[in-house]
Design goal:
- It is found in: Cell inner membrane.
- This is MFS transporter.
- It comes from Leucobacter iarius.
- This protein is mostly helical and 428 residues long.
- The protein has one domain (10-184, 203-419): MFS general substrate transporter like domains (Growth Hormone, Chain: A, Up-down Bundle), CATH 1.20.1250.20.
- It is built from 17 helices and no strands.
- The mean pLDDT is 84.
Length: 428
């Protein structure tokens, strides 16, 4: 069992990493509370799955700019300071969401804009934090640190959505947003505990020239580039979360509580795979592991689509129905499998990026990584919303999962160099 359980050596070796991990873990729970609450709030105001997907569309542009230019900030200035300033901006956006919700403001673009501002600030903060970790830990502990990060996200997406569903149902949207504002303060504790973390070689340029330099490096880094491409495929075609509000209202039943349960199921899988991540540190062919993990992710996503399809055929689509417990359980199991495989992929993609990228471009690579990780699902939200609107609620998961599987099988042959990536001798 000791060999199966997550390696906590990074927490023992680096007190600064331990403080950052704890603060991030608490703050991420609040972030997931707001993500679910905004989706539910927008659906309550509009009764439109497409309107829910537009939350992601509004955030996409600011997030891309934040990833591109925020990474350059992390390569030029003290990374601790960059993380602190962007944390303050994100907290202000959360406070503004709380305020307009208490004032019962129903102007939709305000919620879109504040969610976008919060996402952009979180993208820069994530880029800085990703560039910080190799400064706090040796390379051989980076897989364990990535697994601990997976536990953080798994815990957040398990607890946060469940809390959001219950809090929205019991006390409403304003108090749900306020809860995030309180929890997010833990992020400051983790950041304040860091030492000064200036890059080894600070970039002299800034703006478009710095971004262009990072893109030129990416063209010469096929393994790092592959991690971005593979994750984009998974997230664009395997993100059916925008159908959760409608599924809870008219298909599976149970309303906001079902939405929280479905979202939490994905995170339970991620959390369990993180807790049992001990063997991942021994994997050398990490590129092949990424490919197989995303293949499993596609299969699990398609299975969730099958559950929705069968439920629609056997029970119809009557609004306001009670929960169909067997369907919710089966859908939760499929989403747990998707969460577990996605977390395994994330552990290896994160490790490849942090170990293979030189320090002078690490912030910008982390910025691009943040764009992919956070922006990919938002494109996926739009794709899922369009497919659900054009076809049916079950279509985004079933069709998307099958597409992912087909592409990954092709990538096993096309990306041969990535399949041979060796963790002992990391190359970009």
């Amino acid at each position: 069992m000791r060999g199966l359980l997550v390696d906590i050596s990074p927490l023992r070796e680096s007190p600064a990493f331990a403080r950052l991990w704890i603060g991030t873990s608490v703050a991420q729970i609040g972030a997931q509370v707001t993500i679910v609450a905004v989706g539910l709030h927008v659906y309550a105001l509009t009764h439109s799955t497409l309107a829910v997907s537009m939350v992601a569309v509004w955030a996409l542009g600011p997030m891309i700019l934040a990833g591109l230019f925020g990474g350059a900030l992390a390569d030029r200035y003290d990374r601790r300071l960059v993380a602190l300033v962007t944390a303050i901006i994100a907290w202000i956006c959360i406070g503004a969401l709380t305020t307009i919700a208490f004032l019962d403001v129903e102007t939709l673009w305000l919620y879109y804009a504040l969610a976008a501002g919060n996402a952009a600030a979180a993208t820069i903060m994530g880029a800085a934090r990703g560039a910080i970790l190799p400064k706090l830990l040796p390379n051989h502990l980076l897989p364990a640190a990535a697994a601990l990060g997976g536990i953080t996200m798994g815990l957040a997406v398990t607890v946060g959505p469940a809390v959001a569903g219950i809090t929205v149902a019991a006390w409403g949207y304003p108090w749900t947003y306020l809860l995030d504002a309180v929890l997010f303060t833990a992020a400051f504790v983790g950041i304040f505990g860091l030492p000064q973390l200036r890059p080894d070689v600070a970039v002299t340029g800034f703006g478009l020239s710095s971004v262009a330099d990072s893109l030129r490096f990416l063209r010469r880094a096929p393994n790092i580039r592959a991690t971005f491409v593979f994750d984009l495929v998974a997230m664009i075609f395997g993100t059916p979360r925008v159908v959760y509000p409608a599924a809870g209202a008219v298909l599976l039943g149970g309303g906001s509580v079902t939405v929280g349960a479905l979202t939490a199921s994905f995170a339970v899988g991620a959390l369990l795979s993180g807790l049992l991540s001990g063997p991942l540190g021994q994997v050398r062919r990490q590129g092949r592991a990424v490919t197989l993990a995303i293949l499993a992710f596609g299969a699990s996503t398609a299975l969730f689509g099958v559950v929705l399809l069968v439920t629609a055929i056997t029970h119809g689509t009557e609004p306001g129905r009670g929960p169909i417990v067997p369907a919710i359980v089966l859908g939760g199991i499929a989403l747990a499998g998707a969460g577990a495989s996605d977390n395994v992929s994330a552990v290896f993609r994160t490790t490849i990026l942090q170990a293979a990228a030189p320090d002078e471009v690490r912030g910008r690579m982390q910025g691009l990584f943040s764009v992919v990780v956070a922006g990919g699902p938002r494109v996926g939200d739009l794709v899922a919303g369009l497919i659900a609107t054009a076809l049916a609620l079950w279509a985004p998961a079933l069709v998307g999962g099958l597409v992912i599987m087909a592409i990954m099988l092709a990538f096993l042959r096309v990306y041969r160099g990535f399949q041979q990536y060796d963790a002992v001798h990391p190359t970009p």
